[in-house]
Structures
1.
Amino acid sequence: MDKRNTPYLSRSARYELSEDIGRNHSEAPTLGDVISARLGRRSLMRGTLAATAIGALTPPAALLTAGAAKAAVGSFGFKEIEAGVDEDHHVAEGYSADVLIRWGDPVVAGAPAFDPEAQTADAQEMQFGYNNDFVGYVPLPRGSATPDHGLLVVNHEYTNAELMFPGLADAEGNYEIDALTREQVEIEMAAHGLSVVEVRRGTDGKWSVVPDSTYNRRITARSTRMRISGPAAGHPRLQTNADPTGTTVIGTFNNCAGGITPWGTILTAEENFHGYFRGELTEDMPEYRNYKRLGVGAGEYAWANYHVRFDLAKEPNEPNRFGWMVEVNPYDPNSTPVKRTALGRFKHEGAGMIVNADGRLVAYMGDDERFDYLYKYVSKGRVDLQNPEANASILDDGTLYVARFEESGKVTWLPLVHGEGPLTAENGFESQADVLIETRRAADLLKATPMDRPEEVEPNPRTGKVYVMLTNNTRRSADQVDGPNPRAENAFGHIIEITPDNGDHAAETSGWEVLVKCGDPSDPAHGALWNPAVSENGWFGSPDNCAIDNQGRLWITTDGNNYAYSGRTDGVWAMETEGELRGTSKLFYRVPVGAEMCGPAFTPDDETLFVAVQHPADGGEEWPEFGRPSTYDDPSTRWPDFDPNMPVRPSVVAITKNGGGVIGS
Ligand code: FEO
Ligand code: CA
Ligand code: CA
Ligand code: CA
């Protein structure tokens, strides 16, 4: 094993770096090729206008003076909070933000109490995992719309060893990856995956986890056996010594966002799976081209030291068994999670699903890396909402499409089907399984549009529009600017609104336009685009997750919020998408220092918003009041316990309106 001395970089900073590599060398047209006559030029112009804070937005009604726009009535009644940074979280006046469950809290019946100084893998297997990201609420009983009793399904994306293990990191925050013991590696593996917990809202309006519920479950990278289904299941490229059938695999990891299927199961997204595999990637390896496009090989975890399957030299096919969407049935704690290969293999951010008018399932999905693509999956069969069991093949049999944005304001959805166009044996695709295993390379050949890191994508069932979060891409050069990615060195990201033709999500074309270009509207250098009515606290950067409440209103959470510029933590913003205020947003909630805001999820009555506070205290040196790297022993905040004997803990928070009522009313 290579012994590397790891200069201090938090795990999230490492992911940022990894995403900065920009592995897509596709020659698909970018700017110059696709200078969008319709929106590219107009967007550039808008950027200039935004600089003087009179930016124009469609619809033209938004062309108002700031004063007039402020007088317009928005759909959110709460009083905006002030953006900033400190050790705690903050929610709008009149609301409560209560910590529901924290890293280490018991999940499964019989779980021991959290003892961070004497943590074990077996304990962690029964306790709430690290770095909660996606949160999904499904009601109990199944198929109901119960707003105060249900199951929460939570992803645990990754681990911050420097914040989890006493004494591991030195005062500079440094530690050697290979210094992790076998037990620490096992704890990390057990802290990845998902938790399912039964939750209930009491007569006092407060939420709690139902202890020892038979629904409560941990799914981990360490122990949970999963089935592989769909066109790539059983393919020789998925076979290993441990699984010569290529149909079963232990674990899921780096589960970022996800989605709830119309029949009440969860899709969880395997995102930066490449970071767990180590070993030299050499050109003579059969999977060289595949792994190079995904960055496999330069792993940042020590798992390979104790599990040969994470060592490329020993199990060269193991990485092909990750990077999928995984279906989990939270209603059956004994169910086997299923990796659904028909949805493609890439750095899956999540899945925003909708039942099309004709009954087919459509799932919109982002591949979160600079210059990667936007996808959608359309099922062959129709969803049966009465009988959940009848939907077993919906996610196995369908067509995966990748988006090409045209300068005319049109999206063309290109089918990734073996034998069509360049997806032939000549290009290394012998079957549909090959197309799915190497989805990115197939999409390169179809000349899909390289995007500024597509994160969560959500269809709005009320309006039929689809919202795409594009978090940022500082590597886009001026000659790569195009309509859908309208800024060079795009540090702040933007949001695209897609309108399916005739409301048909399965159609092979849609329309698109830019909703907002993020950044500070008062700084001309940002070229930001907001409705001029946006307040000083209302703008943000680096949109990541989003949710649409049951009234069809859009809520956005950020990853980083460009802290180095803004000095503001991540949070939840309520975004107007209709009427005169379209393109304004308001800050509703913000996280403690170092944290990322994930997992927004509403109950069916919109009276509770669950959010996931991920990696609080991560970093540390960039906050002047702390000014040094955060470690387990010396974190920038000890949120949420503020107990000197407790480490900082990622946690899920339930936000409710005091005295009851709809969130944001
Ligand atoms: Fe895990 Fe793309 O954020
Ligand atoms: Ca994250
Ligand atoms: Ca994300
Ligand atoms: Ca992100």
2.
Amino acid sequence: MPAVPLDRIRNIGIMAHIDAGKTTTTERILYYTGKKHKLGTVDDGTADMDWMAQERERGITITSAATTCFWRDHALNLIDTPGHVDFTIEVERSLRVLDGAIALFCAVGGVQPQSETVWRQASRYGVPRVAFVNKMDRTGANMSRTVQMMSERLGTTPAVLHLPVGSERDFRGVIDLIDSTHKHWTDDDDGVTVHISPIPEDYVEQADDARRQLVELVATEDEGLLEVYLSTDTLTPEELRLGLRRATLRCALVPVLCGAALRNRGVQLLLDAVVDYLPSPIDVPAVIGHNPDDERPLVRRPDPSGPLTALAFKIAADPNVEKVVYARIYTGTLQTQSVAWNPRVRKRERISRILRVHANRREAISEASAGDIVMLVGPKATATGDTLCSPSDHIVLEAMSVPDPVIAVAVEPSSEREKDELEAALSILQDEDPTVRVSLDPDTGQRLLSGMGELHLEILLDRLKREFGLTARAGQPQVALKETVQTNAIATGRYERRFEDTGLFGEVTVRIDPLRRGSGVEIVDRVPDGVLPNALRLAALKGIESAVNAGTIAGHPLVDVRVTALGGSVHEKLSNEIAFEAAASIAVRNALAEASPTLLEPIMHVQVTVPTEALGKVLGDLNSRRVQIVGVDSQDDTEVIDGEAPLSEMFRYTTALRSLTQGRGTHTLEFRRYDAVPSHLVDEIARRGRLS
Ligand code: GDP
Ligand code: MG
């Protein structure tokens, strides 16, 4: 296949609240673009994009695979984004590599809580969007209410392109306001044919009004078109499309379409909108990075003949197949059997194969260029988020912001024989997902697996079992606590050992200061020149660094503190690095004890959606969990509660909420920040926070 010109590539993702119909819509897209020959449905678990076993069982999409299909001579690379906030990093990393997105809404639920979260993330990345109001065939479907919610809740300016024809079960098609036609579908051919006819008599007036509104909206967003509009009093379909494209690319407008993916209605028009309104790789800003050798900032444009610049945005590993790397190429061209440089690990990576992933097959290609998203086989050391670049022209792209994990579970091999296999499997999970951490508990020597939420850990443990065939035992999940200080303090640590004619001696003085929440740890060297020989000064800094990994209350890592090395004293014969490292650690511990140490716990943003009649009970229960209620928002007969919840109080909340609402409540939890544990609870939380 000849290379697709850059302006005919669309790298897009579909963002949606869980259950809005993302999988179904993706399936339909693959079907109509002709790359898939049988319609699968999520309900019987045959959908292609949900290829992992537990996704099928849970009916949710977890991994973001990239799939290529073609529409109107354009290559569409679909990047699957997950719907659950435990997998924020998946959303984050797909937003990094896509240029535009389809925002999917359920016509009944409208703008659901989690759509807001993902919407804000997309806005942060400046991702142009088109909206598709799905499930127009369902009872209670309401296009105009959904549009209204989009402007009220998301603060966006919707540009309505469709009026639904027929409602709920009789939803048949749409009035296309761009070219003023009636487009409709029948059940007998899986909606393959888009029937086009004049606007039915009883819709003419409504359609005229709506088109005028659309024309005015587009004209006021576009100076050139405003003149045309003022002189001709209308805009042609071509002018409307042009104006909509320009406004969408600036994120000034969001074109809104409607349909029912499950009933095969509206999907082709959505594909048209992707081609017409969403950006190609040349419509988006150049990527920025820096030269790892001299820190110089660098900008790379989508030029196939420039120096290779690619981002590995997903690693997929399976014990039965080779490790594969999904990469977006920003600049240059990558050939099979060529070598790319990974600046993080400072290694050359041989690209043995380049694959284009279609819904149901992989196609080997000989090269891939700027703008493309492909799968690479060959890189061994590359992890998620790494840059792959030209061996002769180094660049590191901006790193993804990876949150620290907030919950951990101890895992143990079920037998001595399984130990190595478990070790290997955990390291694969960690390579794939940067929000996964594997560590050793310093007290118990157990392996700890950390992640972003209960569901995240559950899925990881499940994968160990299923994909890797391990029967590892897991303990109870525990929140990841941290420690900090509330005041400043100066203290000295001395390490002294005397033996008969020899010994060890080190003495270090440090100061500790509290920092603002979210600042992390700073280690500062203020030892005056000449006080300590360089080797001992470095040893002292090393001692400080190891001491901040474990606080004094319950041994959790310190955060939001600055530790300053102030000085020390040296014994002419007995001082060495070991003694200074130990003395610095003791100094930090002494200073901590003086600086009112306290415990920090992860605080989550919680959003609970419940039927109005259950509101009282649910609020009462949230209060007992130390949740600060921020607001309650009524929508018809449901209430959306927003609050801030300590994660440690929210374990198994799914089960609690189910019984409080007869299964009708839903909730999301998303990490916000670390905050101090109330003083009367420090002991109890410290005890509960221990992994045993
Ligand atoms: P996802 O969680 O966003 O991937 O949503 P799915 O595609 O899994 O769909 C969730 C449920 O909604 C499934 O039971 C689908 O059959 C159903 N669904 C999807 N699209 C439509 C639609 O257009 N109309 C109706 N009535 N149901 C739909
Ligand atoms: Mg899905």
